[in-house]
């Protein structure tokens, strides 16, 4: 039996349903999938086949997008989230995780959510998808966000927190775990036997010997040396402003960055349409397109499905390793 990838619908007022439908048209002959959500949120011209279980998805793909129906309470209008839909968005993510962890699906691909809409409508307690998936995984899982493309892979050590909070949140234990999980999952899920990791500094010029910040000289450099002695292939801490040109990228398999924008700005510049969000450190495979809900273009039929297509393709590739 071919296991499908389950697609959580995400924020129904955003472009998630549209790019999922478009991705189905691109991949219908190669990637079995099942959309989990309310079929009313899909574009009107989407061919839909209702199914009751993911095991039915592969056979249904030729007729239409297989849909595991989850009825939503609200009436979604493109570009205008309805607070009544918030709990449905959250519940669908949990349902998709259940399908994967029970062995009925190979991976989960999540359409974008809107954190404020979830907080306003359902008191969502998590900063984002990554942290919620970590909680759903349980058993002490430490979720690590990776953004991946053919040009670059980046991992932010701290994620959805204000920049002012980064120095306190960036601890030796957190950085060590992030490096170790990235190394392990590059081996396990990406088949890179000896991952090369470049470690960014936190401060400009990687602190410039302590003149622009002390974290590098006080502990980051020592941590890197210790992990190299343990067998990890690491370089750093490196000035982030010289890590992302082509010659530098050729020297590593992933860049470990210290905070959200330090990681996401370079990959979104290099691969805005083709970047994929991958969550490492979980007992299941999760990918997502590397973009948000795009309320400004929702419902206009112009959303680019490329990142969703790449996310589904990568999920399928990872599930076969």
Automatic annotation (TrEMBL):
Record's subcellular location: Cytoplasm
GO cellular component terms, A-Z: cytoplasm
Primary site of residence: cytoplasm
Cofactor: Zn(2+); Mg(2+); Co(2+)
Ranges annotated as spanning the membrane: none
Keywords from the named record: Cobalt, Cytoplasm, Magnesium, Metal-binding, NAD, NADP, Oxidoreductase, Pyridoxine biosynthesis, Zinc
Enzyme Commission code: 1.1.1.262
Binding site for substrate: 129-130, 268, 277, 286
One of the record's GO molecular function terms: NAD binding
Involved pathway(s): Cofactor biosynthesis; pyridoxine 5'-phosphate biosynthesis; pyridoxine 5'-phosphate from D-erythrose 4-phosphate: step 4/5
UniProt-listed GO biological process terms: pyridoxal phosphate biosynthetic process; pyridoxine biosynthetic process
Superkingdom of the source species: Bacteria
Cofactor binding, note field: Binds 1 divalent metal cation per subunit. Can use ions such as Zn(2+), Mg(2+) or Co(2+).
Family: Belongs to the PdxA family.
Extra information: The active site is located at the dimer interface.
Protein's name in the database: 4-hydroxythreonine-4-phosphate dehydrogenase
Organism listed in the record: Ascidiaceihabitans donghaensis
Upper lineage: Bacteria, Pseudomonadati, Pseudomonadota, Alphaproteobacteria, Rhodobacterales
Gene that this sequence comes from: pdxA
């Amino acid at each position: 039996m071919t296991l499908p990838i389950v697609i959580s619908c995400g924020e129904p007022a955003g472009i998630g349903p549209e790019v999922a439908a478009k991705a189905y048209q691109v991949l219908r002959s190669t990637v079995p999938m099942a959309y989990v959500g309310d079929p009313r949120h899909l574009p009107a011209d989407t061919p839909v086949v209702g199914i009751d279980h993911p095991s039915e998805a592969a056979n249904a793909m030729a007729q239409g997008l297989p849909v595991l129906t989850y009825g939503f309470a609200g009436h979604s209008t493109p570009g205008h989230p309805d607070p009544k839909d918030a709990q449905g968005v959250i519940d669908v993510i949990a349902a998709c995780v259940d399908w994967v962890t029970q062995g009925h699906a190979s991976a989960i691909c999540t359409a974008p959510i809107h954190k404020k809409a979830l907080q306003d409508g359902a008191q969502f307690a998590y900063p984002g998808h990554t942290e919620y998936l970590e909680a759903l995984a349980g058993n002490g899982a430490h979720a690590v966000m990776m953004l991946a493309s053919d040009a670059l892979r980046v991992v932010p050590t701290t994620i959805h927190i204000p920049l002012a909070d980064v120095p306190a949140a960036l601890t030796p234990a957190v950085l060590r775990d992030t490096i170790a999980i990235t190394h392990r999952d590059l081996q396990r899920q990406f088949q890179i036997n000896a991952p090369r990791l470049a470690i960014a500094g936190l401060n400009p010029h990687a602190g410039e010997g302590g003149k622009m910040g002390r974290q590098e000289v006080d502990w980051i450099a020592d941590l890197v040396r210790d992990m190299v002695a343990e067998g990890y292939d690491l370089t750093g801490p490196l000035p982030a402003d010289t890590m992302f040109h082509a010659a530098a990228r050729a020297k590593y398999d992933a860049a470990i960055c210290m905070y959200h924008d330090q990681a996401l700005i370079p990959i979104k510049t290099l691969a805005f349409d083709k970047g994929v969000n991958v969550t490492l450190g979980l007992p299941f495979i999760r990918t997502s397109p590397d973009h948000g809900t795009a309320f400004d273009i929702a419902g206009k039929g112009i959303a680019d499905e490329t990142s969703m297509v790449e996310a589904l393709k990568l999920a399928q590739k990872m599930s076969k390793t």
